Automatic annotation (TrEMBL):
Recorded name of the encoding gene: LOC100770388
Sorted UniProt keywords: NADP, Oxidoreductase
Source organism per UniProt: Cricetulus griseus (Chinese hamster)
Site (Lowers pKa of active site Tyr): 84
Family: Belongs to the aldo/keto reductase family.
Catalytic residues in the record: 55
GO molecular function annotations of the record: oxidoreductase activity, acting on the CH-OH group of donors, NAD or NADP as acceptor
InterPro entries: AKR, Aldo/ket_reductase_CS, NAD(P)_OxRdtase_dom_sf, NADP_OxRdtase_dom
Coiled-coil intervals, chain numbering: none
Binding annotation for substrate: 117
Protein's name according to its UniProt entry: Aldo-keto reductase family 1 member C21-like isoform X2
Stored Pfam families: Aldo_ket_red
Domain NADP-dependent oxidoreductase span(s) in chain numbering: 19-274
Length: 297
């Protein structure tokens, strides 16, 4: 892995870079628009990419990764690539076939992390790991009750290494984070900057996280941007942070998150911003056993 970026050890012994790049593209954009940001991210030193078959960007993400491998920028083993099995693949055989199709599109031999959105997929996910199609398996948008169902499942072979959920200063997921840590499950956060507020994904009347005065005040104190303060907040809590942007300057800026540290007093102030504000309520999650998402943890 890139030495600039810190990694977290997962409960199965593998390592995940704590800063990742999301690869979902809103409907109003061409999916191929993701290609250049992926290359820029790699050149900046970001090698962790979060993808899914439902994003319909796998071919373009894979093309960019292979281009940078071919030019000697990095090796396959430097990349941490995540894929997900969606809620429409309820039958066990579809779990593996979905991953095989994803691997074919991205043209990789394995993924580093395969994430499920529903508990019924567990056995099929374990078989994918045994077959070498994925190094690790995890879950997404699970609350405490659903995690306990998995952890207490008779014959559990592999504990999920992570739980990927929306998390930011307005939704800090404190109780869920504590539960995950107590069970050696990494919390992976999406929407860390309050999302990019795309129509259809986010209520346009919701407050804009990056307009928060506290973030701006701290940005001045540390001579950083409000976005970097929000990112740094997550990393210091022991969270893996995913961010996505098409802006080259912002992609390169994100790597600066490793160049400073927030004081314990400022971390407490940021903790106090929590208001259980969910941004991602899009119907894209329809079919998930925990949708619409609630404040239950």
């Amino acid at each position: 892995m890139n030495s600039k970026i810190q990694c977290m050890k997962l409960n199965d012994g593998h390592f995940i870079p704590v800063l990742g790049f999301g690869t979902a593209v809103p409907e109003k954009f061409s999916k191929s628009k993701i290609k250049e940001p992926i290359k820029i991210a790699i050149e900046a030193g970001i090698y962790h990419f979060d993808c899914a078959s439902i994003y319909k960007t796998e071919e373009y993400v894979g093309e960019s990764i292979r281009t940078k491998i071919a030019d000697g920028t990095l090796r396959r083993e430097d990349i941490f690539y995540t894929s997900k099995v969606w809620c429409n693949c309820l039958r066990p055989e579809l779990v593996r076939s979905s991953l095989e199709q994803s691997l074919k599109k991205v043209q990789l031999d394995y993924v580093d992390l395969y994430i499920m959105h529903f508990p019924m997929a567990l056995k099929a996910m374990e078989k994918c790991k045994d077959a070498g199609l994925t190094k690790s398996i995890g879950v997404s948008n699970f609350n405490r009750r659903q995690l306990e169902m998995i952890l207490n499942k008779p014959g559990l072979k592999y504990k999920p290494v992570c739980n990927q959920v929306e998390c930011h200063p307005y939704l800090n997921q404190m109780k869920l984070l504590d539960f995950c840590k107590s069970n050696d499950i990494a919390l992976v956060a999406y929407g860390v900057l309050g999302t990019q507020r795309y129509t259809g994904w986010v209520d346009q009347n919701s407050p804009v996280l990056l307009d928060e005065p506290v973030l701006h005040c701290m940005a001045k104190k540390y001579n950083r941007t409000p976005a970097l303060i929000a990112l740094r907040y997550q990393l210091q809590r022991g969270i893996v942070a995913l961010n996505s942007t098409f802006n080259e300057e912002h992609i390169k800026e994100n790597i600066q998150v490793f160049e400073f540290q927030l004081s314990s007093e400022d971390m407490k102030v940021l903790d106090g911003l929590n208001r259980n504000q969910r941004y991602v309520t899009a119907l894209i999650f329809d079919g998930h056993p925990n949708f619409p998402f609630s404040d239950e943890y």
